[in-house]
Amino acid sequence: MAAGRPSAPGEPLNTPLVPASNFILGEERAYARDDGTPTWEALEALVGGLEDGKAVAFASGMAAVAAVFDQLPVGAVVVLPDDCYQGVVGLALAGAEKKRWSVRRLALEDTEGWVRACGEADLIWLESPSNPLLTVVDLAAIGQAPRKPGAILAVDNTFATPLNQQPLALGATVSVQSATKFIGGHSDLLGGVATTRDEALWQALRKSRELSGATPGTLEAFLAVRGARTLALRLQKAQENAQVLAERLEQHPRVARVRYPGLPSHPTHATARRVLKGFGSIISFELHGGAAEADAVCRRVRLIRHATSLGAVESTMERRAAIPGQEHLPPSLLRLSVGIEDVEDLWADLEAALQ
Ligand SMILES: *Cc1c(COP(=O)(O)O)cnc(C)c1O
């Protein structure tokens, strides 16, 4: 893919690191926080190309999320999924406490409820597949629902990546992702991107970045571009691995339940088949027993790292209910972000840890 690459003869193939805050006056670009840098723009061109919209790069996924919430008028109505990234929930509830907006929660499977919400709310926030229950929403239906004038339908596309789901093509106003995860793919940067086809919203998101100062780091943007070049290969391998592991985990006597959109047993498998191009590389599974058994498995894995976060080349696993604010989850639920290691090595590691 050529997006984000220089094109003139004699230029480097890759947009170089341009660690500039300031530019000689007379050109369009004067100051990085206001006007961007060539390195940020390479990331924006690349992700914008994948999402088929115009992108704004941010310092983190949460900075991109906050810029979307920043668009809301005082008193706005926000509808959030029941299963949703904890940072987004935290941001939304903090704003509600300050009376900036009100928040309603809705089950992700409730397509009719979401369709109705589109006519009533100012910000309809979807996440699909969701974290950590991996519920897939019928974005094809919700994206077509009539919306209140000025309403924003936002989709957190972090788990799907633009390769498995293109929210803008399905009718979303803005697609948000944490570039920290699959786009970067190597657990070595924080970044976020918001992409839209609405020129006024694109301008407003840029303005929000300018005024909040939530600008991406130069090295981070460079690494995110470099990471994204292999996204297709990484995702393909990781989701092939995930399908194999999910099927084997489902047969394992110590495993009580596996949630993976690629399994026919997943509650939203049929929707996933319709809406997603691939089932992703995150698996959540519960053990017979409780927190202690799950913690022991986390301590015993060797190749799989006991770590939070997801979407990287290396597999990581953690017990989600151990995270503050996630106590509502099943106590033994383990979220496994499958990497690109050899699948038999991963299975051997899991099997040994489950003994
Ligand atoms: C990690 C994550 C975010 C936040 O991104 P940061 O880069 O950590 O700020 C938002 N949504 C989802 C689904 C995530 O996994």
Could you say what the CATH architecture of the largest domain is? 3-Layer(aba) Sandwich
Biggest β-sheet description: 7 strands, mixed
Distance between the termini: 45 Å
Count of strand segments: 12
Give the CATH level 1 class of the largest domain: Alpha Beta
Total domain units:
2
Number of helices: 13
**Share of helix among residues?**
25-40%
Using the coordinates shown, work out and report the CATH topology of the largest domain.
Aspartate Aminotransferase, domain 2
Strand order of the largest sheet: 1-7-6-5-4-2-3
Helix/strand-derived category reads alpha/beta
Rounded mean pLDDT is 97
Global outline? globular
Secondary-structure element string = HHEHEHEHEHEHEEHHHEHEHEEEH
| CATH-assigned homologous superfamily of the largest domain | Type I PLP-dependent aspartate aminotransferase-like (Major domain)
